[in-house]
Amino acid sequence: MSNNILVVDDEREIADLVEVYLQNENYNVFKYYSVKEAQKCIEETNLDLAILDVMLPDGNGFKICQQIREKHNYPVIMLTAKEEETDKITGLTLGADDYITKPFRPLEMVARVKAQLRRYKKYNSAPVQDEGVITHSGLVIDVNTHECLLNEKPLSLTPTEFSILRILCEQKGNVVSSERLFHEIWGDEYFNKSNNTITVHIRHLREKMNDTSDLPKYIKTVWGVGYKIEK
After folding, report:
1. By residue range, what is the domain housing residue 166?
2. In this predicted model, what pLDDT tens digit does every residue of 174-194 receive, in sequence order?
3. Pairwise CA distance, residues 138 & 175, whole Å
4. Which of 7, 107, 135, 191 could join 182 in a cystine, given CB atoms 3.0 to 4.6 angstroms apart?
5. How far is CA 58 from CA 27, 62, 69, 116, 219, in A?
6. 70 plus 18 within the same structural domain
7. Given a cut of 80, is residue 91 above it in pLDDT?
8. What is the three-class DSSP state of 148?
């Protein structure tokens, strides 16, 4: 069954280009040019992934991302025409899983979509051949149901946050580099040393877990190397 992908961009040429490349991969594309149209689609359509432009005529993609995260955990990719880190960090903090800066290569966009869908489907299908349930100091991660509890209270995590926490718990006691986290989650070659995507997701995870970088109970930063969860 084909995946349903929401594309929201008021630059029609870009929206049309994204649609063509995704349809060539046999995805069902729901294309809109405004926040209002997209919001209606989100409520009425069973979606598998969303690609959202930041700047829209009646609002912005951040608002749509927030709406999605209220009820859904499918991947969200933000499109931004700016090089400013603030846009990227804002999107990731609101629950986006990835961002692409315009102008972008269509094949890179397709690769990122495929990587996100692979990860999302892997952790939302059953049965999953994995460890099943991972526990650590009040933290319970159920790989099969994609649920996470902290001190018996549900943690609302995005697919990317869940993946990072799962990997760190699986490697408990070992340092995991940002580069390794990036490749295990996205499975592509677009990582570079200036990429702060993992850093933002780690920070957001800590906020949700009431953890700190100064006195971490769970996620410890090993400067210049990566991250680890102590045994």
Report:
1. 133-229
2. 999 988 888 888 776 565 554
3. 21
4. 191
5. 27, 12, 20, 27, 39
6. yes
7. no
8. strand
